[in-house]
Amino acid sequence: MRDAYHEELDSIGDSLVEMARLVGSAMGRATTALLDADLALAESVIAADEKVNALHHDLENRAIDLLARQQPVATDLRIVVTSLRMSADLERCGDLARHVAKVARLRYPASAVPHDLHPIVLEMGQLAQRLVAKAGLVIATKDVDAALELERDDDAIDALHRELFAHLIDERWQHGIETGVDVTLVGRYYERFADHAVSVAKRVVYLVTGEHVDEFVASTDGAGPE
Amino acid sequence: MRDAYHEELDSIGDSLVEMARLVGSAMGRATTALLDADLALAESVIAADEKVNALHHDLENRAIDLLARQQPVATDLRIVVTSLRMSADLERCGDLARHVAKVARLRYPASAVPHDLHPIVLEMGQLAQRLVAKAGLVIATKDVDAALELERDDDAIDALHRELFAHLIDERWQHGIETGVDVTLVGRYYERFADHAVSVAKRVVYLVTGEHVDEFVASTDGAGPE
After folding, report:
1. Containing H/E element for A14?
2. What angle, 0 to 180 degrees and rounded to 10, lies between the N-to-C axes of helices A118-141 and A74-107?
3. Do A53 and B216 form a contact (C-beta atoms < 8 A)?
4. pLDDT tens for residues B42-63?
5. Is the whole model's pTM more than 0.95, yes or no?
6. Fewer C-beta neighbours within 10 Å, C or N terminus of chain A?
7. Contact A89, A199 (CB under 8 A)
8. Cis peptide, bond prior to residue B72, ω within 30 of zero
9. Residues in contact with B87: Cβ distance below 8 Å, sequence separation at least 6, in sequence order
10. Can you tell me the ipTM of this complex?
11. Hey, how many other C-beta atoms are within 10 angstroms of the C-beta on A110?
């Protein structure tokens, strides 16, 4: 029975890695759709989020089934409960990639992001994608050092987010309020995406070391323009 | 042992009701702080969020402890796992109230919201507070009819959110981009707060009836300007 248990636990880990891969790809494609005003690509990102949702629900059911059948305790129990939380984080990352794609779709055939802001948004998108790719790797390898690297990447995203806001509130802003609203929301989506990726990595650190990197990870996301 | 188990389960329910009460009060006070530019009130909301976070972490530990000691199955297991999710929803509501208070603090001594938008923002704040109060009641009473009412209130918030965006992108907007950014983010915070309150109620409906009100509750929040 214990072997079947650990096989099932490994398979839950595999699903988490697959979810991280899917949402990273989705955010990469959503960013391209946003900057290139590519409607077909935006639509494909929106449609593909169903697959992430399905994986999330399937993983939840398997985890609850595992709790009921195997009744794990101590570390094993924490792994299953933590997997549920990581799945919720990654499902939310999928939503946020979909939100970026929906902004792209809404403004098509224009790009929602003015050209002078393309480099910042591109870098935020690339960093977000890299963060969740590293989070997937951390799930697979339990590499605590790699997990701690995510904090630095998240600082870089926060710095870009501040830079984006500085452009928005600059008196020379010439792109109007509608574009300002789009850029505000898109910036927030990238930042939340990165927060969830960091949260996943921190949960792994806690499982491996028994120590919280930060007791209140889930409650310390930035509030935008601060 | 079963009696101790159900007592502990009740006590987890009580904590969820208390969290709902705290975050509802926090959002009401955050809205007042925002509209009145009341710095002291904003600071008190920001400080009080620690209590919600502490309740959330305490509840998580008690739920995991309950799983380990009592090893519930079937419905009992679902109740404990669902409580963990409701706690995460309510903790997030607390964050969002704190975010609104932080916008108030950032713009003090001015109000971050222009006077002509005060009625809309006030109504969003009141609805958000009412939604989470109802969610708390639903947790306490398991009243499915009350739970379904939350959907209607959430529709009302979404309508107000669209109205807010219509003002933002109106060519007669005269409040500048910085205020536009603030209003965009505040609108998003209320909307997400309401989504989490609805999510809590839907989880209770699922526990009581065994049927999902909506399979993908967590993944269908609005993406802002759509």
Report:
1. helix A2-36
2. 160
3. yes
4. 999 999 999 999 999 999 999 9
5. no
6. N
7. yes
8. no
9. B15, B16, B19, B55, B56, B59, B60, B63
10. 0.85
11. 11
DSSP string, B59-109: HHHHHHHHHHHH---HHHHHHHHHHHHHHHHHHHHHHHHHHHHHHHHHHTT
Angle at alpha carbon of residue B211, lines to B209 and B216, rounded to 5° = 140
Please tell me the predicted confidence (pLDDT) of residue B4: 85
Size of interface A-B (CB pairs under 8 A): 118
Answer whether B223 sits within 8 Å of A185, measured CB to CB. yes
Closest of B89, B131, B98 to residue B218, by C-alpha: B89
Inter-chain touch A218–B98, beta carbons under 8 Å: no
CA distance A226 to A223: 6
Query: Which of B103, B106, B177 is the best mutation test for A, with the most CBs of A within 10 A?
Result: B177
pLDDT at A15 over 80: yes
CB contact under 8 A, A85 and B88: yes
Of B68, B177, B216, the CB nearest to A169: B177
Q: Are A223 and B180 a contacting pair at CB < 8 A?
A: no
| B7 interfaces chain A, CB cutoff of 8 Å | no
Based on the number of CB atoms within 10 Å of its own CB, is A15 exposed (0-12), middle (13-18) or buried (19 or more)?
buried
Q: A218 touching B, CB under 8 A?
A: yes
